[in-house]
Amino acid sequence: MTMKNIVAVAATIMNNQPKIDYEAFKLETLKAFPNLKLDQYDEEMIAYANEHKVPIIQLEGLAFLKQIVRLHKPQTILEIGSAIGFSASQMAKCSNAQIITIERDELMYQEALKNIEKQNLQNRINIHFKDALEAFDLVKDMRFDMLFIDAAKGQYRRFFEMYEPLLNEGGIIVTDNLTFHGLIFEEIKDRNLRQLVRKIKEYNAFLLENENYETSIFQIGDGISISIKKEGTK
Ligand SMILES: C[S@@+](CC[C@H](N)C(=O)[O-])C[C@H]1O[C@@H](n2cnc3c(N)ncnc32)[C@H](O)[C@@H]1O
Fold first, then answer.
1. pLDDT, tens digit, 9 for 90 and up, residues 126-136
2. Residue bearing the CA closest to ligand 1, atom 22
3. Which of 52, 63, 142, 219 is 20 to 30 A from residue 23's alpha carbon, by CA?
4. Measured in whole angstroms, how far is the alpha carbon of residue 60 from the centre of its chain?
5. Each residue's pLDDT tens digit, 180-193
6. Mean of pLDDT over the chain
7. Is the CB–ligand 1 distance for residue 86 below 6 Å?
8. Is the CB of residue 105 below 6 angstroms from any atom belonging to ligand 1?
9. Cα of 103 to ligand 1 centre, how many Å?
10. How far, CA to CA in Å, does 15 sit from each of 34, 84, 86?
11. What are 16-60's pLDDT values in tens digits?
12. Is the Cβ atom of 145 under 6 angstroms away from ligand 1?
């Protein structure tokens, strides 16, 4: 990765990123993943994300995520980090799952709510406006077939440890952004960025070493892991 790219990513973290050309990216991605089947609502959400710099899942990662959902056929999914409800909508539309999604940013939450209702998915997706680190009580009596972790990257391990006891045996935990724009392979000069990258690397190691889970990390999209909860793990 070039210095220019590293600076661009650092700028992203400072909420000042240059616009991604989603149109060009989408055309390229759609060629490779025709089964994405984006509808008018998806297009609108992608346009909104581009306009307002909302970091929704990359389309390549999305194609992968949807195949995971189609293969695993979860009945229940818990998502940490809804943003505008894009990935939750996508998972709902390619499955029969009931989805709980948690978002701590009020603007994001309001936008997600609108998107869910617009698509008439309110019976399938239940969104909570709350910090996921304080939301355990909302879901503690539920059990999930899949967790999708896609929120503050520095907290991934805490999300994992907090919610994995609610995962059924054989269930899966999918985590996004594990290669973080390729930065985990780079030497980083900026101190804050370096700390964040270190946390992501530590999370990757934690996943791979966790004996209760069988984990693979794929360099797809922004880096996605699948961790399968082993039989006999409570
Ligand atoms: C990468 S975006 C999620 C993108 C979304 N999953 C998608 O692909 O459409 C991360 C979101 O997580 C939210 N978030 C970060 N930390 C959180 C936390 N502790 N609890 C709840 N939401 C959080 C952010 O506000 C942001 O909207």
1. 999 999 999 99
2. 103
3. 219
4. 12
5. 888 888 888 888 88
6. 89
7. yes
8. yes
9. 6
10. 31, 16, 20
11. 444 556 566 666 666 667 778 889 999 899 999 989 999 999 888
12. no
Furthest CA-CA distance within the chain: 48
**Which residue has its alpha carbon closest to ligand 1 atom 26?**
83
Does the beta carbon of 55 lie inside 6 Å of ligand 1? Answer: yes
C-beta 214 within 6 A of ligand 1: no
pLDDT at 6 over 80: no
Output the six-digit token pair for 60. Answer: 């390549």
Cβ contact 149:173 at 8 Å: yes
- Determine contact, residues 205/157, Cβ cutoff 8 Å: no
Contact between residue 100 and residue 128 where contact means Cβ atoms under 8 Å apart: yes
Q: Is the CB of 129 under 6 A from ligand 1?
A: no
